[in-house]
Amino acid sequence: MSDATLFEQVKDEANRVDPYPLFARLRETPVSRQSDGTYVAATHAAITRLLHDPRVSSETLPPADRPKTGNPISDWIVKPIRDRITDTHRPFIFRDPPDHDTLRRAVMHEFTQARVQALRDRSHGLVDEILDKHAGSRSFDIVDDLAYPLPVTIICELLGIPTEDEPQFHGWATQLATALEPDTMADKEARSENSRTFETISDYMTGLIKEKRRHPKDDMLSGLAVAGVQGVPQMGDYDLIATSILMLVAGHETTVNLITNAMLALLRNPDELVRLRDDPARAPRLIEEVQRYDPPVQFRTRRALTDIAIGGVTIPEGADIVLLLASGNRDPAVFTEPDRFDPDRSGVRHLGFGGGLHYCVGAPLARFEAEAALTALARRLRNPRLSADPPPYRPGSALRGPKHLRLAIDGIAPS
User: Fold this and answer.
1) Largest alpha-carbon pair distance within the chain?
2) What pLDDT shows up at residue 230?
3) Rounded distance, CA 351 to CA 328, Å?
4) Could you give the CA distance from residue 249 to residue 244 in angstroms, rounded to a whole number?
5) Structural domains of the chain in order of their starting residue, each with its CATH number
6) Residue 393, SS3?
7) Which of 50-59, 193-202, 303-312 is the least confident region?
8) DSSP 3-state of 33
9) ∠ CA(251), CA(255), CA(256), 5° rounding?
């Protein structure tokens, strides 16, 4: 049996720099019960099976519980109503079928080929614009200077959020991303802060949705607000608010980590950085390898709807489950030399974008944004060197990536 405290150690910020040795120990038992009663799936086979098992629920968020205000009318009448609305209109990554399928279909309908291609072209142009602004620099922070502004600008343009409003989303998105952390779900103070943040961003989105309905434009939020999909009713306001917030948070957090984790891997493997500079067509395979080797989403949580026998154990009904995606990506039963960064490996079946019904909706966006960023960085940064290795990491264990990735450079080549 594996150590029942291993997942607690994974969540410990002291292990944020390199949790992979802990994953290797967890894989000794495909599914292990941890000391807090959580069941952790750590092998590729166990994770894949549970990702596709209809007895596993994604409705893992605890009931909404807004902070009390001291006003009896608000606390005893308004608060229960608003909590109920929140509970019944979660973002679709926290919903099961049929609600999940209906909402996801509406979102996917807005990812038209023309819109995706336009955003792909825009990403390449935007990266060059960003790098041009730093042309005379001798230092560069991958996170602050590129990996953050690129996907945030793209997601705001996709949704139709005014550019001048974007800065206020930074703090909101960072706070709401903590909802994916298991400890936050059990922390009443953190949940209260998330509730306050959700209320603030919901109020903003309510006003923006009204404006989109009055004056729709060629953006995703307008499309969701004014048009239904064949066979699917028009998305209601509460679901539309939750969906737009989900897209914003994902655009602010996961792609930032993907670009940063990829650049860190390239700087630690300088031959690969040179190969990418000389052959930009390598970018897609490199991105897939990063999603295997060091994915921005390390794990997701689920809940058992009934008893589930797997990996020699029985997960009881109601138990919390952790799908340790990053561990499955290093499973030696599936990948040769799994701890080696190798963009040339073939047949990569990584779990970096999840799987099953909840396979990442934004995967195409993340891929081409990362491709635009990495090819330009490889081509234009002159003699990039890490200023600190390891770099400082963000506190989260579910969404894992450097807080900063500062480089010393000899300059930036013209575009």
Assistant:
1) 67
2) 57
3) 7
4) 9
5) 6-408 (1.10.630.10)
6) strand
7) 193-202
8) strand
9) 100
